[in-house]
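thought: fold this chain, then report.
action: predict
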Amino acid sequence: MHFIDWLIITIYLIWIVSDGLKRSKGLNAVRGYFLANRSLPWWAVGLTVMATQMSAITLVGTTGQGYTDGMRFVQFYFGLPVAMIILSVTLVPFFYRANVYTAYEYLERRFDVRTRTLASLLFLLSRGLQAGVVIAAPAVILSIVLNLNLTITILAIGVPTTIYTMFGGVQAVTWTDVKQMVIIVAGLAAAIVGLVMGLPDEIGVGEALHVAGTTGRLLTLDFTFDLNETYTVWSGMIGGLFLMLGYFGCDQSQVQRYLTARSVTAGRQSLMMSAFAKIPLQTLILLTGVLVFTFYLFNAPPMLFNTVHDQQMRSSPRMAEYEELNSNFLQAFNDRREAARAAAAARRMPDATGIEAADALFQKRDLELGHIRDDAKALVIEVTGDRSYSDVNYVFPTFVTTQLPIGVVGLIIAAILAAAMSSIAAELNSLSTATVIDFYRRHFRQEASDEHYMRISKMTTGFWGLTASIIAMYAVNLGTLIEVVNRFGSFFYGSLLGVFMLAILVRWATARGAFWGLIGGMISVTVVALTSEISFLWLNVVGAIAVFFVGIAISAFQPSKEPASN
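observation:
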């Protein structure tokens, strides 16, 4: 990578850290550190809500998903607008009036301290693990495409983020998120321009997309009802709805975002902003991945996007076999390129029969190329023993670093870092909040000065930053990272959602019912996940329903000695 690109990245890191540290001035109270004194405008809160969700996994994993699987991943978000409307009507004013720091404080008021502690513990466990994955996603990929040491890339992401979050609190998180969203959008726009300009002069964007569409990559709607299939309209509308309700309604990393808003109205506006901007933005990111596919229809792609595995294979005892596959791959690419050109040219002709024949030939050539790539991947797994090998996460960064001009590379790498840091900062801040408010202050030091809690909060943020960085070291071989994070979340979010449903919808639900319902929900999710092939999105439904009905049953047949109060 060129010196100018490194300079852009360095300037970005210095700018973000210095801006975050500025927010620490005059910050001497816990309410300001964790809630920004509920003073933030709705648009800033809306941007930080989006930035928190849009990690580097979104830019890297989702573009890779678009490249390999097309647009159907967008169905995952179909439940989001409905979830945001429900939360805007229910939990946003509810939490705001309750004047809480964490969502789990309410569970103690409604039920008991056991339920609050267990729910908060589940959040800490899920988010603590995910924070490591969110760091690992860009770190492991950038370490390979930029030829850097993995530890260095992890520290380059984790340390600056931890520093400005530790000292600046939620204000630093929010206002750096605003700037980072600008960088992310700018980087995405630059990538799209580079992709369009990289197409042959005689082939337009529409023609290239039509050719890609023959492989099914432009299909966005699948009405098949199959519990084992992740990306369908029904899994997105039902499973995705429960996931989004759990994530935005019960996950402290999101609840804390809209608790910083100036008013209930501002909190609602921030969620609505995310509800109606997320799907178009996600569609654009997926389309970027499809455009990468169209780019490599006419420009030779590597057989393996992971250069480390490519180098390992070229120095392995089966090098000759690998080289033969690569030679076959290049020939197959040339055949597919000619077929793609013919399919694009056929669309300029009025003969529909010619279009069908050209499309059929292209599909055949594309399958042939895919089979060779599959053989190469199988050989990699056999030689390296890396059963989780996946090329998906390396597609977009490899394109950026090998095909785009100087300066643009630095901007997009900065965008990937921005996406990672915005999400990590929110997670560290929320992890610190739950640790200090739900555990330290509740169980160890209930009466202490703001200065004391501020000191503990900063120490806790640093602890979680270190923990996330360590976890990142072991999260480098988890497959498609966009799915890894969603699987983590789906294991916990449904059960957390279920206990809040029980609290709000069933006035006679008891503390005993809530506590054992939450345990029953986690057991149910674990059993279903281990014994079936059901898609992870449906685990959110399983968890929520299990908690809700187990909680109702226990509340009815084994009521608490004292009635719970709202």
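thought: worth noting. Residues 307-388 form one domain.
final: tokens above.
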